[in-house]
Structure formats: structure tokens, C-alpha cells
Design brief:
Elements lengths: L2 H23 L8 H7 L2 H4 L1 H15 L4 H4 L2 H29 L7 H23 L7 H27 L6 H11 L7 H13 L18 H6 L16 H7 L18 H12 L16 H10 L15 H7 L4 E5 L7 E5 L8 H4 L8 E5 L7 H7 L7 E3 L7 H4 L10 E3 L7 H7 L8 E3 L7 H10 L4 E3 L10 E2 L4 E2 L5 E2 L3 E2 L2 E2 L6 E5 L18 E2 L3 E8 L3 E2 L4 E7 L6 E4 L35 E3 L4 E22 L8 E9 L6 E7 L10 E23 L16 E8 L1
Parallel strand pairs: 2-3, 3-4, 4-5, 5-6, 6-7, 8-16, 10-17
Antiparallel strand pairs: 1-2, 9-12, 11-14, 13-15, 15-17, 18-20, 19-24, 20-23, 20-24, 21-22, 21-23
Organism: Dyadobacter sediminis
InterPro entries: Cyt_c-like_dom (IPR009056), Cyt_c-like_dom_sf (IPR036909), Cyt_c_Planctomycete-type (IPR011429), DUF2231_TM (IPR019251), Fn3_assoc_repeat (IPR026876), LRR_dom_sf (IPR032675)
Protein name: Cytochrome C
Amino acid sequence: MHSKFRTFAGQLLIAANIFILFLLFFENKLVIPAWLQTIGRMHPLILHFPIVILLLAMLLEYFSFRPEYAKNQFYRNFLHNLLLAGSLLAAVTVIMGLFLSREEGYEGEILNYHKWTGAGIFFFASFIYFIRSSTWYKAPVAKAGSLLTVAALVVTGHYGAALTHGMNFIWEPIEARKEAASIAPEQAVVFTHVVQPILEQKCTSCHNADKMKGQLSLTDAQSLLKGGKSGKVLVPGNPEISLLLERIHMPTEEKKHMPPSGKPQLTPQETAILHLWIKDQAKFDKKLASYPSGDSLQILAAAYLKPASRETEFDFPSADEAEITALNSDYRTIVPLAKNSPALAVNIYNRATYTSKQLNELDGIRKQVIALNLNKMPVNDADLEIIGKFENLQKLNLNFTEISAGGLKALTGLKNLSSLAISGTKIKYSELSALLPAFKNLKSVSVWNTPLSEPEIVQLQKANGSMAIIGGFKDDGKNMLRLNPPQMKNSSPVFAGTMALQLKHPINGVEIRYTMDGSEPDSVKSPLANDKLLLAKSENIKAKAFKNGWYGSETVQFEVYKCSFQPDSVHLLAPLNRVHQATGAKTFFDQKLGVIGANNPAWANNWAGVKDNDMVLVSEFKKPALISSVGIHYMIEEDTGIFPPEIVEVWGGKDAESMKLLSKFKTEMPAKGDKPSLKTMEGKFKPQTVSCLKIVAKPLNKIPEWHKSKGNKALLLVDEMFLN
């Protein structure tokens, strides 16, 4: 490396040390803008470069004092440059990591361990670079420093992997199966030994105490019931409206699909277990032995608890790779079941382009195909004759196809077929009950959304005890469903003059009735909501949806707020909390309300917060305004230390020098165990004409004795103020 460039790089390394020290020291005050968040997310992209370079540099450093290397100028120059490059790349990685750590979803001890060990490696590598030319730097010091750096790299990498994949990612499959194998079915608790292991394997790498994506943890029963930023993830007894299953069933290309594309997905059996467990009221202490013999959940859970056998060995050779490549297309994918496995899985897409030719073309690899997905394809009985030649087929998805029971007879010769999905077809109970005994090794059949009634599905299960008959919810018209609550169409619940309240419902023919006196809406006496409902002041509205043949929805409350005056200019006289900056002084009059959850990134720009100082806002009006009340909208989440303002003061006058106290009021403090809520407190006073208005909201100075953070200062979060 050229000496001038090396000198510059060394100076850059010193600057990087100072900058990283600054970031670490003032970390709690960092506010990362969107463009820096993008840079921070490149942390996983480049971290492998400094790891490899520093490992290589430390290996060379360990042997650098051997006579044959100590006198080799090329060796010493190469090592010096390598260590400098590794240290600089480590600096970039640490800075990106610090930016990334400020995003929602990263917290806890593992993050701290990863952060400080990573920063420590950078500082230590820089230290070695600068002192390795000293006279006292000898072989023992070099070897000790090399070994220490390598050990730190391993530890840091471990904590980084734990953040991404979970703390026990490496040994989890073995330990999970060991635990399952050690539990006798009669002793197993469905949630503890079946449901929770599924969540641990597929969900908790992103939803745990150290990495709470979406403010959601799925590590225990309490966290499951609490939910996350999008609300509750399960509704006991109602899998159809449980967010957990909704996200699982989304197409993999959807952004909200869980687990994310590229991560291990839930198997149909695992999804069915979660569905049936939630349908059974999501009980956390119910034992498997308490379920009746033949119950779908009992069968699937018992199968899950069986010790895992060694990886399946196939007695057929691998297909020609060139042939597989030629058969892959935009509408047909052929992939190995596992690495180095001869078994293949075939998926065929696009109903409009499907023909029997796509099956016939697979004749050369039919021995290797063990899984075939034809979901929603126009497959007919003639196609089943072709599929019947796939002698090693184990899993077949024929959901929502045009097959008949007669056509399925062509599949009875498939001795390895263990999973058959025929949901959404027109096959009847009499046909299926006569056909199933012919399938000797079939273990599960999916039949939801078919003409089969629920009693018929139960009867099929009894007749085929070792086979899981997987049904689903079926509306036979005898059981009324509950309507979901109405929604508000208005772009904002804050208005200046008057507002026509617009309520909507996704189901046609629904009546929405409301009250504004605090009473519960009913289907007869309460007024109907329509666009003629004109509001002239702040209101608390209760609404409910009704329709013949349905249960009325749950009551939903809409709070609307009138703010008659918009200041011409606003500014803060004291700083906001580093995490809750929102849009500064503009936050309080932008007609955007936040939601419960202080760290909800979707609404991060709606909450302005203070903790160590008062919230002091000054508003100015070019044209004097006659004001008689000031309202402040705030969040209460006592469990996380978010309390209402202790005192609110309102000052006003013709200018900043002549303001006088117009109102001073206290807010009601929450009690222990109160649920999180959003509230408004209003201070009223004799009408005053003002050109300058100052609002001072003082955070609670000492959290009550009953709280886990007793004696500390509380966080105050405000998203809007109302001037009338």
C-alpha cells in the first residue's frame, strides 16, 4: 500500500474510533432518519468481509514473529495492510449496526452483548494495528491478541446469529425432538409440547424478547395473548379471524405473509394444528389425553410428538439435472426435496396456461417426484390417470380442481401416497367413504369447503381412525355469525368547523346504528348512521352493525375532536425525548392521531414525548383568536411507564412578553393494572383574545410506589392539541 494512502487510512481509522465512541456515548439521544436506516440495514450485507479479513489477519499475526516471517518484508507489509483494511471495514460494520439497532424490534440483552462485543473487536483490532510496531510488542502479546480477537469474533457472531435466528438456533431441532420424544402422549400438554415448539421453530427467531418485530413476542402464553402492534394475534374459538392464521395463509409473495419468504414455512400439518388449537378456545393447560379418540387435533398432535426417524432414504437414483432444468418454466417449478436428495417436488401454476401436457412432460422424472401441487388448476379425471403412474408420489394437492371420486380411483395404486388434499372439490360423503379404504397408506385427507357436512366429516374420521380427516368451518345456514364492527371512513377524526361522520361496513346490506349519549346502540331505537350526521363539536360516538341472519357486531367507539384554530406558527422551547420526536412542534396540529404502543413504527411520527423536562409549546396567530379551551390528547400505558401529564398550564396574551396564566389543570392518574388507553383532557377558561399562546405539559415527576419503576420520572406522550 502506498505510504501516503496508508497514512490517510490510519488517520481515517483514528477518526472512526472517535466517531464510534461518540455514537456509543450518545446512543440514547440518536434519532436515525430514513436514509440512515437504509444504510443501517446494509449491516448484514458487509459484516462477513471484516470477519474474514480479521480472521486471516489474526492467523498471520499469530505466526508473524517466526524467523522466516519476521524478516519477510512482503509478509509484514501484507499483514499490516490486511489488519488496517479489516479494522476499517469493522468500523463501517459497527456504525451500520448501531444505526440498525435504533430501529423498532431490536432490544434486550443479546443486542447489548452483540453491540459491545462487536465494538470491542473494532477497538481492539485498531489498538493492535497502532501498537504492533512498538518495541515491547513481542510474540506472546501477538499470539494472545490474535487468539482473543478470534474468540471475540466467534462470540460476536454467535450473538448476531441469535438475534437473527434465535438463541438456540443450532441445537433447536435436536433438543425439540429430544423433548418431544421424552413426553408420553398421555402426559403431553397440547400448547407446551406441540403448539409452542411449532412457534419456536418457525416464529420466535423474529418474535422474542430480544427481537420483537412488530412489538410481538410469541415465546410464551402471556405474550401470545397480549399480541403486538397490529393487535391480538389470536381470538380463542375463532381461527377464521385470528391474525396469526391470517398471516400464515397469505400468499408467500405478500409482504405481511408469515413466516417471511425465504424462511422455513409451516407445513400443512402444523397449520392445521394451530387452527384446531385456536378453534378449541386456545387452551394453554389442556392435556392431549383429554381429547376424545379420533379427534383431529388429537391425531395430528400425537403424530407430531412421535420421535423423528432418520432422514428418509430413497431407493431411486437422482434425475438428470439438465432434464430438470429444461422442465422448469415460468409456470412449473421442479426442486429437490432437500440438498443432495433425489426426491423432487413439483408445483404447477397459472390456470390459464395449464394443459395435460405439463404432466405428460414429467414422464422422464416420474420416479423422483414425491410431491405434486396442482392447487386451483383445471385438473380433470383424465389427468389423474397420468398422475397414477407417479409410483413414488407421497403428497398430492388437488384442492379446488375439477376431479371426481371416480377419477380418484386411478390413484389407489399409489402405495406411497400419504397426504391427499381435495378441498374445494365436489366430492360427496358417500363417494369418499367408499373410496378411502382403498388407500392403504393414506395418513391425511383435507376436505374443507366440499359438500361434506360437519357430521359427515366426523363420521369419516371414526370410520378411518388412523387417517386424519381435516375439515374446516362450514356455514350451513344454521349457525349465525357475528358481524365485525363498523369502521370510520373520514380521513381524520379531527376537524375545524363541522364534519359529516362517515361510517362504513365491508358487508352489503348492513345497518349501522349509533349513540352519542354513552348508551349502547340497539337495532331498533338507535338512529341510523348516514352522511347526514353532521358534527359540530367533539363527540364520543358508539356504533354497532346489524343485519338479518347475523349477530350484531361488538360495539365500537369513535372519538372525534374539534379544533377551531390552527396557529400560524408553532415552536418548542424545550427538547423532545430522542425516541419520540415525531415531526417536532408541527405534531400537535397535524390532525393525525397515534395509536396505543409507544414504539409502533407505523405511527412513530405521531407521538411527541418528554421525560426529563417539560413539554413547552408556543403558538402564534397572525390574526388574534378568541379561545376559551385547550385540549391535550395523550397516551397511558402504565406498564411501560407512560403516564398522563401531572399538570398542564395554559398561558396567553398579545405577545410573548405579556402572557398571563389562563388555566392550570391536573389529569387523572391511572391505577395499577389499568389497560393502555388514549385520553383527552381539556382546560376551560373565560374567553380570551390572544395572539400568542403557550402550553406547558409537565410529565409525572415520580412514578407511584406500586409501580415497578417507582420514584422514576414518567414518559409523557402527546400527539395532538385542540384549541376552541
